[in-house]
Amino acid sequence: MNDELAEAVEAEYTSLSALRIRMWAHREHSEFPDDVEVNVRAESDLLARHDVLDVGFGTGDFLKNLHAAGHSGRLVGVDTSESAVADLRGHPGVDARLGSATDLPLPDDAFDRVCARYMLYHVSDPSAALREFRRVSRDGGVTVVVVNHADVVPGVMGMVREEVERHVADPGVRAVNSVHSDNLPDLMGAVFRRVRVRRVDNSLVFHEPAQLLRFAGAVTSMCGMRPDAPERDAVIRSLTTRISSWFERNGGPWRDPKGYSICVGDR
Fold it and tell me: Is the pTM of this model over 0.90?
């Protein structure tokens, strides 16, 4: 199962296109204004002099934005995606490395702040990853982990799962494990001296069918369909029909609850 999860995550992030679409949706279609990066910086008491590690950095925007804002401490990112590392490598002021969260290619006691945003639910052994985060943080350091609520955007996820199960003869392992807002505090409490939690609730709101379809197509791998699956076109056609019919009947908007937690662990 662990190998299957790792393979599903690797396939998902061979390209960053689906990730960028999901980020677009949360940035442009959240019901209430919200900036996760701002919240992470605030909850971690991040200072410009801090040495920062971002694990599972994805597009690298968090580190790029810190550098652009004049951050003076070291900025290091580790990701399992070769595409992500290649995209960030060479960016001024940022050290991008290929590596696993459960075996970080970094020395002990190296960072003031360790950040892991929206990635722990992609890891085969979350507890091992948390122990690694603690290992590379300094005395007095802080680790900030962000994960989604347990049943995020249930409307669109349920619809996509139904179509994947209907069209794909042998759905694969979803590219996520079972870590979420409700169980992360206990996982971190077993590793860190003290854990603080901030929950953020919101919704995704789509006013047009094309907006919802774009997002739905970007979460298919989270529902067991590989990005290169031959059934992908059939799934997208069915989703197009269902989404168009829903808007014809209801007029919109499509509103789906979502949320996340920021858990801060003190070393």
Answer: yes
